[in-house]
Write a structure and sequence with these properties.
The complex is a heterodimer of chains A (140) and B (226). Chain A is mostly helical. Chain A has helices spanning 2-22, 35-39, 51-69, 79-106, 111-139; strands at 45-46, 49-50. In chain A, a hairpin with a 2-residue loop joins strand 1 (45-46) and strand 2. In chain A, helix 1 runs antiparallel to helix 5 and helix 4 runs antiparallel to helix 5 (111-139). Chain A is elongated and about 55 Å long. In chain B, helix 3 links the parallel strand 3 (60-66) and strand 4 (94-100). Chain B has a domain at 2-108 and 172-219: Glutaredoxin (3-Layer(aba) Sandwich), CATH 3.40.30.10. Chain B has helices at 2-24, 41-46, 71-89, 110-121, 126-135, 137-140, 147-156, 161-169, 174-186, 212-224; strands at 32-33, 51-53, 60-66, 94-100, 194-198, 204-208. Chain B contains 10 helices and 6 strands, in the order αβαββαβααααααββα. A 6-stranded mixed sheet of chain B has the order 1-6-5-3-4-2. The chains are: A mainly alpha (140), B alpha+beta (226). At the A-B interface, helix 1 and helix 2 of A face helix 1 and helix 3 of B.
């Protein structure tokens, strides 16, 4: 349940970043946070795809998986916890790389990107208990 | 389980509301601001603008405080300003008076970029250098030192590189850029770009992080007042 709620929060953060990247939000002057520097750097896109779009897709996928795992029919599936764990792990690694870029290469911090990195880390931690429970069940 | 769905719907509603506010709430309400009288004659004399785009006698003044390393200034300079040019400057209705406001704590190369643009201005090529510095911002912004890059840009524009390089290597224009920063501080500029739109006196409209439509509204309002 925590994974679903946090993924939804993460999706909103990622959507806001995507909207800012695409110019759907009013421009925020420099000096009121340095998101603009991060968002306009060459690292803000992978090819033509904004990184925030990748983040949004990831959060939506995690949300969908978490909600599916709560359904009676799929509740006993062992696949879903593994998929949630794997997806969150990829998210944490990707966020870690982006945070490194902010710190060491772009040298500017976007608070929304940092918020997303924290959220995905908590999502990852939240996937662990279910995974442990399944592994214990498999060992028994 | 029922509680879970209540929580997730609540998060969705609150999150949606915050997003809606963030995406629409930036449209400025155009209210005149008090700039106050600057009684520091020395500062006014020293804080000469980097460049005046348009006719000096144009009735409406758009005073911009800009930072060359600020991506929002880049967006304004390369995307919105050409629209302002086409609609108001080329027709003689307004002029854009560009002042430097490098934010040193955020943008370590902004002061040098402001000086470099003024060095290009010494050779009457300020507008071209202005556009090129903004256009290449992503390349030089993360560099440890941008001086060599700014010299390359001057060469690219076929400026007199010897004169440009000696200007950049000296402290030429440092005092006037600093005075521009002090002028911005006197006008309580806290971010860039900040624009003040007026017709030589009150009312003065202040815009931050502006888009063309905001400037258009301010210019038309300033024009209507007299």
């Amino acid at each position: 349940m925590a994974v679903a709620i946090l993924s939804l929060v993460g999706a909103f953060v990622a959507f806001y970043l995507l909207a800012a990247n695409m110019g759907w939000t009013p421009p925020v002057p420099c000096g009121s946070g340095d998101c603009a520097t991060v968002q306009s750097s060459k690292y803000a896109k992978v090819g033509p795809v904004p990184v925030s779009g990748i983040g949004l897709a990831g959060y939506v996928a995690l949300l969908a998986l978490a909600l599916a795992g709560l359904q009676d029919r799929l509740g006993r599936s062992r696949l879903i916890p593994f998929l949630l764990f794997g997806g969150a792990l990829v998210g944490v690694l990707f966020s870690g790389y982006l945070t490194y870029l902010e710190a060491a290469v772009i040298k500017a911090w976007c608070r929304y990107c940092v918020a997303s990195a924290i959220i995905i880390t908590i999502v990852f931690v939240a996937t662990l208990p279910e995974l442990k429970r399944i592994r214990r069940g498999m060992g028994a | 389980m029922k509680n879970f769905y209540i929580i997730i719907v609540a998060v969705a509603v609150v999150g949606g509301g915050v997003l809606y506010y963030a995406m629409s709430g930036g449209t400025p309400t155009l209210e005149p601001v008090e700039l106050g009288e600057l009684d520091n004659a020395e500062l006014i004399e020293l804080a000469q603008p980097a460049y005046v785009f348009g006719d000096d006698d144009a009735p409406v003044t758009i005073m911009e405080f800009a930072d060359y390393q600020c991506p929002v200034c880049k967006r304004f300079g390369l995307f919105d300003k050409p629209q302002v040019d086409a609609e108001f400057i080329s027709s003689g209705q307004a002029k854009l008076v560009l002042h430097d406001y490098p934010m040193l704590d955020l943008h370590p190369h902004a002061f040098l970029a402001a000086r470099a643009a003024r060095c290009a201005g010494d050779q009457d090529r300020y507008p071209e250098y202005h556009d090129l510095v903004f256009d290449t911002q992503e390349d030089w912004s993360p560099m440890a030192s941008a001086a060599g890059y700014f010299k390359d840009l001057a060469a690219q524009l076929e400026l007199d590189t010897s004169a440009f390089n000696s200007c950049l290597d000296s402290d030429e224009h440092a005092r006037v850029v600093s005075a521009n920063m002090m002028l911005g501080q006197a006008f309580q500029v806290s971010g860039t770009p900040t624009l003040f739109v007026h017709r030589g006196g009150p009312p003065v409209y202040r815009l931050g992080g502006s888009r063309f439509l905001d400037v258009k509204q301010a210019v038309e309002s300033a024009g209507d007042e007299n």
